[in-house]
Backbone:
């Protein structure tokens, strides 16, 4: 199968880690007989400052019609303080391509990387299904009497039955396919009664269709604590947009940090976007310190999405072997730079 891949490095460390992800995933794809052709796009803060838009009109439709996937780095640049370009580009992709599943696996590869005492790979192995098109991210809000003592700022969360149901169903379907025991739904229905009662009701109804999967609920505050104290309780965790954002960084912390946390913004069967969970990390951009493993593992998720689980596994196994060998960047206790980690991963994928 041949697929076109749109590569968008973005800002800060985005282009650095994406370059390594592209070469490692490209090599694994080739070995598995998956024919990928990569096309790079310059969308970034620089592009926005030059052109006044984050991405040209019509480009998402082009991606949707002609591309198998988007390999994305990160956005975030202090010259665009309101993140206008990032909203057009990243939230734009999520909304315009209707990438309703933000799949964020949390998988500890070795106990050394876990800050929790006595926890190992069997304990920290869960998958977050973050709803990716609704909630507080829809941009419904406003400011009144701005700059006065009577200022009002509003940001409204939007939840639809359709949007809630499809992400919950995706979580259960994943659990069935991947032989996971349970699905936990996390919300804040005790405080946000209108929106999250819909989540509770929908969860109960969908869960009833999957009697073989244990279904349970935790308020998001308790879920955060449980992820730290008893991460082994979680298999599949489904939650709304903002809670999923926060819990996935917490999860990243359990598996070695943001340098290792991968994600896929997915609409099954359609052009989807794969990116590390981390941002543009301006504090280390250009220093070579960026760990490309999160981007590489995101590219592995892309290979899986494009129909080559064996290529995805080859990449993941290379990362596991490389962490075990200590061929890693400073965030994981090593002394290699971003390019060196990419080169060694490439050698492992080709071995
Ligand atoms: P960040 O994820 O960029 O960085 C947080 C910390 O983790 C920093 O100390 C950074 O050096 C470290 N870090 C992140 N990725 C790393 C890697 N691959 N290897 C080693 N260390 C790594 O979060 P932030 O500092 O809050 O945000 C910076 C900018 O990125 C902001 O503009 C923010 O809005 C944006 N952001 C974008 C995305 C995205 O594009 N998906 C995600 C999160 C944040
Ligand atoms: C993420 C990021 C984004 C989000 C930001 C950059 C808008 O934190 O992908 O996790 O909140 O979704
Ligand atoms: Mn985030």
Residues:
């Amino acid at each position: 199968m041949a697929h076109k891949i749109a590569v968008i490095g973005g800002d800060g460390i985005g282009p650095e880690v994406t370059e390594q992800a592209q070469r490692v995933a490209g090599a694994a794809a080739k070995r598995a007989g998956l024919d990928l052709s990569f096309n790079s796009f310059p969308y970034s803060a620089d592009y926005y400052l030059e052109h006044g838009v984050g991405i040209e009109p019509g480009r998402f439709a082009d991606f949707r019609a002609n591309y198998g996937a988007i390999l994305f780095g990160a956005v975030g640049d202090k010259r665009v303080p309101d993140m206008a370009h990032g909203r057009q580009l990243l939230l734009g992709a999520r909304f315009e391509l209707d990438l309703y599943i933000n799949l964020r696996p949390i998988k500890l590869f070795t106990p050394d990387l876990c800050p929790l005492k006595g926890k190992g790979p069997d304990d920290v192995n869960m998958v977050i299904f973050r709803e990716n098109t609704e909630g507080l991210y829809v941009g419904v809000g406003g400011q009144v009497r701005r700059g006065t003592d009577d200022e009002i700022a509003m940001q409204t969360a939007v939840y639809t039955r359709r949007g809630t149901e499809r992400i919950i169903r995706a979580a259960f379907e994943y659990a069935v396919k991947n032989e996971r025991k349970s699905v936990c739904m996390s919300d804040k229905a005790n405080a946000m009664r209108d929106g999250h009662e819909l989540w509770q009701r929908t969860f109960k109804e969908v869960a009833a269709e999957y009697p073989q999967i244990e279904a349970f609920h935790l308020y998001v505050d308790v879920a955060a604590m449980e992820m730290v104290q008893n991460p082994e309780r979680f298999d599949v965790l489904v939650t709304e947009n903002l809670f999923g954002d926060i819990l996935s960084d917490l999860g990243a912390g359990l598996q070695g940090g943001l340098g290792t946390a991968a994600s896929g913004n997915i609409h099954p069967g359609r052009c989807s976007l794969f990116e590390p969970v981390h941002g543009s990390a301006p504090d280390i951009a250009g220093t070579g310190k960026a760990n490309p493993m999160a981007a590489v593992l995101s590219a592995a998720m892309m290979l899986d999405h494009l129909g080559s689980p064996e290529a995805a596994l080859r990449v993941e196994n290379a990362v596991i072997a490389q962490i075990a060998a200590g061929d890693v960047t400073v965030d994981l206790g090593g002394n290699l730079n971003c390019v060196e980690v990419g080169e060694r991963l490439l050698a492992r994928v080709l071995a």
Remarks:
- The first helix runs from residue 14 to 31.
- The chain has a mean pLDDT of 98.
- Residues 169 and 206 are 6 Å apart (CA to CA).
